Amino acid sequence: MSYIERIKSYHLDVLKEIGNIGAGNAATALSTLLNKSIDMKVPSVRIVSFQEITDLVGGADKVVAAIFLRLEGDAPGSMFLLIPVAEAEQLIRRLTGDVTFQLSEPPFDELGLSALQEMGNILAGSYLSALSDFTRLNLQPSVPALSIDLAGAILSFGLIEVSQVSDYTIVIDTEVNEMDNELSQSSGHFFLLPDPTAFEQIFTALGVEMDE
Q1: What backbone phi and psi angles, to 5 degrees, belong to 71?
Q2: Considering only Cβ atoms within 10 Å of each terminal Cβ, which end of the chain, N or C, has fewer?
Q3: Of 163 and 71, more confident
Q4: CB 19 within 8 A of CB 7
Q5: Of the given ranges (21-30, 81-90, 131-140, 166-175), which has the lowest mean pLDDT?
Q6: Cα–Cα distance for residue pair 190/68, rounded to 1 Å
Q7: Would you call 212 helix, strand, or coil by DSSP?
Q8: Across residues 78-84, what is the average pLDDT?
Q9: What is the reported pTM?
Q10: Which domains does the chain have, with CATH numbers?
Q11: Number of neighbouring beta carbons within 10 Å of residue 37
């Protein structure tokens, strides 16, 4: 039985709980950054094949804002944060106060792009910090890279190396809400792609039995 077939729903429940702790830490950081009350949560964590990734973001022809970083250390892998362009624009407008910011066509405002990259850095860092605290694994993220492009193009480029050694990714759904504005909800997907041996390292470190 492969390691993917041995992963059960309760394994994902552990990752969901860790994700919500990370989301709470990220919400605190974003609240300070925005000077607004921000709530974040992780409604679900699942494992999907690479073929399913583009469907989750609306198809290969969907334009998205993507933040990519590589993980090194005890559980090497890669991480993507994908956000629909319309929601990324809303987030940047709230971050910068620039109501004219747009991602529909270049050139894009550099300040807005920097703000989005910093937000992605905060989110990724919060999740990885929570995961590292629980697993006691050394996880070192690279400097995040930002791209605005078709989801299919971004994922094809980013998964070329990873797809040679794995076929699956952990999807951490994320919702961001401004608590005094019901219309401000934004959602995105974190794709955590541990290298094959890292899957077992993560779950073993969490103390969850991987039944043969």
Answers
A1: -100, 135
A2: C
A3: 71
A4: no
A5: 166-175
A6: 10
A7: coil
A8: 86
A9: 0.81
A10: 3-205 (3.40.1550.10)
A11: 13
Q: Give 47-106 as a DSSP string.
A: EEEHHHHHHHTT-TT-EEEEEEEEEEESS-EEEEEEEEHHHHHHHHHHHH--TT---SSS
Structure token digits, residue 86 = 């319309």
Please give the DSSP secondary-structure letter assigned to residue 163: G
Structure tokens belonging to residue 45: 């964590």
Quick one: which of 117, 124, 137, 130 has its CA closest to 174? 124
Residue with tokens 């747009």: 102
pLDDT of residue 51: 74
Record the tokens describing residue 133, joined without a space: 């605290």
Q: How far apart are CA 160 and CA 146, in angstroms?
A: 17
Distance between CA 155 and CA 80 in Å, rounded?
Answer: 9
Question: Is the distance from CB of 187 to CB of 81 less than 8 angstroms?
Answer: no
Query: Does the pLDDT value for residue 22 go beyond 80?
Result: yes
